[in-house]
Design brief:
6 helices, alpha+beta
Amino acid sequence: MKKYILISLLFHLSFFLVFSSINQLGNEKLSRIVPVTFVATKTSLNPGSPIVAPREIEKKQQKKEEKKVEKKLEEETEKKEIKSKIADKTKKIPKEEIKDKKNSIEVEKTIFTENNGNPEGENEVFQGSNFMTDGDGGYIALSSAGINYTILNEVEPDYPSQAEAIGYSLKVIVSVKFLVGLNGEISKIEIIKSHAKLGFDEEVKKAIKQWKFKPIYYYGKNIKVYFEKDFVFYPK
């Protein structure tokens, strides 16, 4: 009897040991960490940033399109405004106004002819920034702009012998201002941009003194006129 009890105990003990070992192996499997590798199927257009949801992308694209449309509308509006301004400025002058202008021109021509080229209102003709009164009752034009004139004798200055003797190698510019008198002769000479050394200024003055103009008239009035000229000397 004792023998059977001992065998039964050994059998249950062995069964318990086997069951506990199986249970322990299962727990070890459950507790073991298994590494998992994920492979991305899509990559971001901007590496390093999170992938934007499709809806967000659509919103951004829609905003861009709206901005483009707004800019285009603004440009078209600006073009229309510019065209309307140009159209306002270039409106045709009424025929009646054109006729009035033509008539006034004809009247001015008649007055000019009747007074031997010296129209009435002489003071008004010679008033302005380009004219000043002379001491003898005449007028002096401060520049030749808008005045017809004829040069009868024009002399170019010689290259200074002093500069040529030493082999002067620089380009020289001398600016001169001179007054043409009532008879067309040169009455005043002033160097306004000088190169006094080596005789350049003197050669310019010498040449200008030989110039001769046909007497200058403006609206039938014999006048004096100031001229300015640059003379350029190149190395020889």
